[in-house]
Amino acid sequence: MGRPLARPRELIRTTAGGKSVAAGGRRWWGVRVNHDEVLAAYDRQVRRGAVPDGPRSRIEFDGGVVRQVGPAHGWNGVLWSELDDDTADAAIQAQLAYFTGLGLGLEWKLYAHDRPADLGRRLLAAGFAAEDEEALMVAAAAELPHEAELPDGVRLQPVTDAAGVDLMTRVHELAFGTDATDLRRQLLDRLGDDDVIAVVAMAGDEPISSARMELHPGTDFAGLWGGGTVDGWRGRGLYRALVAYRARIAVARGYRYLQVDASDMSRPILARLGFARLSTTTPYLFPGG
Asked: Distances in Å between the alpha carbon of 207 and those of 66, 179, 204, 211, 235?
């Protein structure tokens, strides 16, 4: 997998008065963060320096592309690319040939700051379909709330076994209205993996909200994923509580930043908590064989 990633220089600095600042940055709860430097660190550490997100997956470097390849139920696709007007079309065709040759579909995870500027148009022309745009949002984990009040009778339960995975995927299907079969298999693959933190909010015996955090060893970033709450329990602080739960663990594990690909629904909540938008990301999908 190559050499370990070097730790970046401090992106948050403290003044003599005790406030953390970085010139030209954005403010998170009294902390000013350098937008461009954090985004560059994210690209360098999490995308270009990616590690597999499951025991049966691998990261491959193909010219100007970093891709993940794994089982059909896992995530397969392009995480990072460094292309230009002259190389983009050939790289797209090379990735299509590679993944379809394995009988796999793929996702090309495109960010607004990726180049060339018309890469999305080129992906569409090659047969990809664009899904909804999401905001890449990041916060300094230590600056986020680490405690949040839960509704009466609700408790947070860590997911540590197959029964917990079933509770989590049940919430996912109810909250998002999508089939969670592949997610269930992915979570089962990573049971016992210390770099995946999964949690379910329970009201008695009923799962009502769930989320997970994926840690990126050797980096400053932990990713928040899958935060969903079933109808009837939304707007009661569960999403905020799950963010606080994971932020507390991230800080204890030594991670500096939390990252979220935020939908329109979660974006305002995250902004109020202190997350800043660094870019946008759009999944471009090509179906498998």
From this structure: 37, 17, 8, 11, 16
- Total Cβ atoms within 10 A of residue 116: 16
Tokens standing for residue 73:
């139920």
pLDDT tens-digit map of 134-144: 999 999 999 99
Average pLDDT, the chain: 90
The count of residues in the chain is 289
Full domain range(s) for residue 267: 139-279
- CA–CA gap between residue 279 and residue 159 (Å, rounded): 31
pTM attached to this predicted model: 0.87
Can you read off the two tokens belonging to residue 29?
Answer: 């709860």
Considering the domain boundaries, does residue 21 fall inside one?
Answer: no
Task: State the pairing for strand pair 196-203/206-215.
Answer: antiparallel
The three-state secondary structure class of 173 is helix
Chain centre to alpha carbon of residue 244: 16
